Amino acid sequence: MTETPSPGPDVFARYLERTRWFGGKGRPFSIAGVRRIGELPRTADDPRVVVDLVEVGYDDDQGGTEVYQVPLSLYTDPEPRLDHAFVGWWEEPAYGWVHAYDALHDREAMALWLRAFDRAAREPGGNLNDESGLRFHRIGEHELDLETHSTLFSGEQSNSSVAFGEDALMKVFRKITPGVNPDISVHDVLTRAGSEHIASLYGWLDWVDEGADEGQGTTLQLAMLQQFLRTASDGWDLALASVRNLYAEADLHAYEAGGDFAAEAERLGVALREVHDVLAEHFPVDRLDAAAVAGLADDMDTRLDQALPVVPELAAHADALRAAYDRLRGLRDVAVQQVHGDLHLGQTLRTSLGWKIVDFEGEPAKPLAERLRPDSPWRDVAGMLRSFDYAPHVVERQFADDHPDNAEQRAYRAEEWAHRNRNHFLTAYAGGELSDDQRALLEAYVADKAVYETVYETRNRPAWVAIPLEAVARIGAP
Ligand SMILES: Nc1ncnc2c1ncn2[C@@H]1O[C@H](COP(=O)(O)OP(=O)(O)O)[C@@H](O)[C@H]1O
Ligand SMILES: O=P(O)(O)O[C@H]1O[C@H](CO)[C@@H](O[C@H]2O[C@H](CO)[C@@H](O)[C@H](O)[C@H]2O)[C@H](O)[C@H]1O
What we know:
7-stranded antiparallel beta sheet, 5-stranded antiparallel beta sheet, binds adenosine-5'-diphosphate
């Protein structure tokens, strides 16, 4: 990476370590370079807002590099209102000393993004190619509300999302991989197809690295603008509330309790089926031959091989897991297509107009080529089934401290809740009973997802690893 007129690398290293979205926390790293790729169009009254790409090199056995996007607001004087987002101060050759803040926290700066997207809608083809190299693209007819203020989401996110009032949401991608970002390309297709189960795409921002790919140029997709789902409630939070309700009256069956979730699970099944159908219409669908089906099972085997050293408790269940993958090996007529790739209840939102599915980026830890590869839709179904298993266990962890009695009754209710919602979701998705082959395919994907979760929990929430481990233990059990 080429150097830019910026501070020493330590300034960015210190800032990355403080953020939620930096994926390399806990690993030894250094800043390999900082590159200034563009500046937002502005008037003389606006702050200077620049987009820097920070290349991080890892100094551990795994090694490798990653690139993170850090948009900055640059002010000549300190801005105390932005103290919490202070990155550093340094001298820039053309401007002198500047105080730099993470621009996502700065309303004055975010207004520049919104204005540029608004201008793009009035340019030929909906494209605004700013002279600094940033390219704003718009689709659809939505008129942006320029009077709104921006609010940065505070949730546990791998990217950064900013809401413009209740009108639009902009997701700024933090880890940048050259090429197509499936969150944009899939939303683009689903929006143009009129899917009712997503937030419509309004536009996106990209930049072409002219010097990359032997002078051919490579596109880097930097941000996505979409419909703000104003009446949304998070599917995971709703499921937890339903379980809490049930535990509070543990003498009732799941279907008798006030917060029964089954009708929602059913609607979610229908929504996922509709999204898969639209994706199958607009992206290629491949019917796999025997070798390719065996390849899917091989990938699951490899994932287990890689998980074993991280989660040694898996060893006791490895034979049962491999037997589930072997049953997949024997299947014929397996189709693959564009899927969500990382579906769980936390990626679903209940709005007054029904369920919406968000975040089509795939599993963030997977390389882009793997995330773009067609996969079986049963991977998404399996993700949801695992989530229905997680919810009662997570509530039990919260409940157990305050209510140590009655744990056995709750465990019974937990299984009843998970079973009921899995069944309603699955039957609605499949439109009836599953065939033996579909069941074998689904079981393999559920096993694969549970193995992935044991690794995810060991690394991120070790206290939760028992949840997927219990699921793994059930695989192959009579
Ligand atoms: N269009 C939307 N309208 C309102 N809230 C949204 C919308 N899309 C996502 N969200 C909320 O923002 C959170 C983060 O979005 P997500 O796409 O999962 O980000 P990330 O890629 O950083 O994980 C979601 O859990 C959801 O609650
Ligand atoms: O949302 P992400 O793309 O970051 O997905 C990762 O984190 C999820 C947790 O937030 C994780 O999901 C696992 O925990 C959920 C409860 O918190 C549960 O509903 C899911 O079923 C379970 O897989 C996901 O696996 C991981 O990729």
